[in-house]
Every structure is written in C-alpha cells, then in structure tokens.
Amino acid sequence: MPLDDLGHPVPLPRPPRRVVSLVPSLTEALAVSVPDRLVGATDWCTHPAGLDVPRVRGTKNPSRAAIGDLAPDLVVANQEENRELDVRRLREAGIPVWVTRIETLDDAFASMRRLFGDVLQVSTPDWLADAEQAWAEPPEPGPRVAVAIWRDPWMWVGARTFTGDLLARLGCTNAVTAERYPVADPAEVDAELVLLPDEPYVFTAHDGPEAFPGRATALVSGRQLTWYGPSLTTARADLLAAVAGQGRMPRS
Hints:
Rossmann fold, 2 domains, 5-stranded mixed sheet, 8 helices, 30% helix, disordered C terminus, ABC_Transporter_SBP, Vit_B12_bind_prot, Cobalamin-binding protein
C-alpha cells in the first residue's frame, strides 16, 4: 500500500481512474497529463485554460457531498492548502486521499514523480522532466529579495516555504528570515528587490510599488512563485528575467 507525503497509507487496489483534485497546481498537472482521469476540481482551479470539470467548492471548504457524488477512487490534497478536518472526513467516508507536502522544489519533483509513477502508474510527464532539467542549472549570485503576499497588514514569504526555496535556487537571498509567512512593515524589510505577485493579494502598478520608495520592485505572476505544476517548466527563466529587471514576468 503506497504512503502519501505525510506517511499515511492510501488504500489503492488498482491505479485510480477517477481523481478529484483539491490543489490548483495539481489540478493543472493532472489535466495536462491524464485528462481522462480528472473528474472534479475546486472553484480556484483555473488552469489549464478552459478546464471543464465539475466543481466541488473551494480549497478550504470543499463540499464532501459533491466529492462523494463524483465517486472518486482518489482525492489529491496538500497539507498547507487543505484542512486536516476535510481530509479526515473524506477518509472516514471511505474515499482514499493522497496528501502532498511541499516545502522545496525537490519536494515538488519527488512528490509529483511518486503521484504519477507509484499512484497513477503512468510515465513521467514530459513537462516534469523538462522542469527538472531547467532547474538543475547552477544559480548565479542574485540580490536580496523579499516577496510580499498581502498588505494591511504586510505579510511576506519567509523561511521553510516553497517560494523561499525557489529564491535560493535562483541564487537570491530571502531578506525575510522568519519562518513561514511573517507580518512586517515594509520599512523593516531590508531587500534590494521586492517582488509583488498577483496572488493571494493582487498587487498592481498602482497598488504596492509606492510603499517602497527608492527600492526596486517587480510585478510577477504568483503562479510562477507558488505553484508546483507545469508552470515550473518556464518559471526559472521568467523569474530570472524579473530579478534581472528585463521586464515583467507574464501574468497568466
């Protein structure tokens, strides 16, 4: 019996054919790689464009009744994205749940390889192999960077996070050293460059940069910073372009 990323046994008598995803990044990965197996997703699952599957509400409040009606033989979830209560109740209802835990880029690659190979029992998707190759390139020294994720209050990406690991893999130093997602005034953050993504808070050219007079800022796609699906194939080049000031990273 396979064990998910938290070491929980997941009873799977056969490779799952009906999968519900409660994680937007994994929804995209499944829709691109095994579209015939994806039978449900959350309202927040917006990629790939034109995704047409039944919706089961949000990541934090999924409808267990709607999930049950889809008769899945697997639900995929994430430790940070989804509530332990929902995972437990789905399991109590007899629905296998595969929980991922992603704090680093290598976690993401290993977890997705296990999901596709050990669980779904399909070959490694081309986009995953391409992403691993792209991120294998050694980093060049980069600036001190801070990534804001909210304002009022200002919240930041800290240590022991997927985004923080991406910064390190780019050669950048995360200016925010507290763990996870601390609150700090912009004046307290000693960064040469501040990245302002469009999720969860939607920073814009007129909402965010004005808080950092005299410092460089860049509007970036939160999808490239926080997702661990097919977007990883282009994330490294896009992020390097943003850090180097070669233009905005495309928001898609």
